[in-house]
Design goal:
Strand content: 15-25%
Number of strands: 12
Oligomer: single chain
CATH topology: Rossmann fold
Order of helices and strands: EHEHEHHEEEHEEHHHEEEHHHEH
Largest sheet: 10 strands, mixed
Number of domains: 1
CATH class: Alpha Beta
Shape: globular
Helix content: 25-40%
Length: about 300
Amino acid sequence: MSTVALVETTDRAAGVSKSLQALGANPVKNKNVLIKPNFNTADPAPGSTHNDTLVALVDELWSMGAATIAVGERSFPPTRGVMEKKRILPLLSERGVRVIDFDELAPEDWLEYRSADDHWPDGFRVARPIIEAECLVSTGCLKTHQFGGVITMSLKLHVGVVPTGRNGFEFMQQLHSSPHQQEMIAEINRPFSPDLVVMDGITAFVDGGPATGKTAAGNIFLASTDRVAVDAVGVAVLKHLGSNDDVMNRPIFEQRQIARAAALGIGVSKAEAIDLVAADDRSSGYRDAVGRILEKG
């Protein structure tokens, strides 16, 4: 069983804190922590991780006993420019958080992975800091993806650990032009495993995405240690909110990102293996509604 903690809230700091408390796991104590946010672009949440969410997560990880904290990212425009536009750098600096700009990594710090059963024709590369992280915490947004991914949650978040052409390797063109894009997204997740996943769904894209789209008030935070479980619950939330045909008309575990990741053993393979926990009494009704959709598929 994989636990997914659910909090109904409109307060991001409360969402981070209560979801992690309800999850009841503390893999960060005395560890060097690397946070992977959703900074593909600088668009407002859920186009990118809200500054309040990242700051609250940093504060919570310090309180949980993290030894050090760094934030690592590779954005679509130059990463440093995205962070500057979001005005997140001073907030991280004053909290003692180091920034690792994957754009600045040397070629040898992009580690190659190949597997005979993957859909990547020449394999792919992953940023060394992700692979070597003592404790990896991933924080994404709840949203759809209009350019072939269908959904972009915790699995899709990790496309940002693979280099772009400006890093000396070109994999994004392969990904976005492939009919197997969704399977390739799942396969990126094979070489590493986050110790915590926190998803901000206070505002969700129910159509469009990943940078802009049709929004809905999700008023939810999710936390888990299982990427497949948290994405499956995320799809159930989108169904609850009312989303596009690709989400509404396909069973959750038949979403191709989720199906491929489950087949690879990255996470759970069925709804019955998810323990959906409400963080407080207020959240129990929301948990029950999402749980019914999850069970139905």
